[in-house]
Amino acid sequence: MNGYEQDRYSSSDGRATVRIGGSSSSAGYAGRATIVTPERILSVMAEESGISLELLLCARRDRKIARPRQLAMYLMRKLCFELSLAKIGASVGGRDHKTVMHACDLMDYLLTRDRNLQDLQQRVLNRLYGSAQ
To answer: 35 φ, ψ to 5°?
Structure first.
């Protein structure tokens, strides 16, 4: 994930503690630890994408809303590793596990090609883990 090394520590309530480690090349995240929850990812995604939380969770499928929602599901899969696909889908408006799988596959593809999506992901990660100082 963007050159970051992750040491993951689990918790019993479905939250993940993620420490972003590595050298100074890891954008200033070295040694920081934080709790990442699906709710926190959705909240930050809503703020960074300029789309309300209600729209992220609704059934609308237009790209302007779907891409940030799909990126949120992708980040939940990568950062909240104890959550099943079904639990991720449930936290994003009651979506099916296959929808989450599709979102993760699509983000794997698009994040290698779409600079705007890469920038959005980086802004969300900066907010989740604190910006580099």
So the answer is: -95, 130
